[in-house]
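Notebook, bench 3.
Goal today: get a predicted structure for HMA domain-containing protein from Rhamnella rubrinervis so we can plan the truncation constructs. The sequence was checked against the plasmid map this morning, with no discrepancies at the termini. Length recorded as 70 residues. Pasting the sequence as submitted so the record is complete.
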Amino acid sequence: MKVQMNCDKCRTKALKVAAEADGVDFVGLEGNEKDKVVVIGNGVDAVTLAKSLRKKLGMADIISVADVKK
């Protein structure tokens, strides 16, 4: 997900919101500007997570959703 992050406080908020979502096993930052939140887990609802991020940070876009098989 691409999230609007203007400062370190925004990054911390984004990571906290993503980590509290149901089914999340891993949360990390990616991209040149560290503006992409990577979420890995079982049963994570991308739409609900995007809504939560928008509520806290103002902007969040789902870039991709992938089903990874082990």
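The chain has a mean pLDDT of 91. The beta strands are 2-3, 24-30, 36-41, 60-61.
Flagging this for group meeting.
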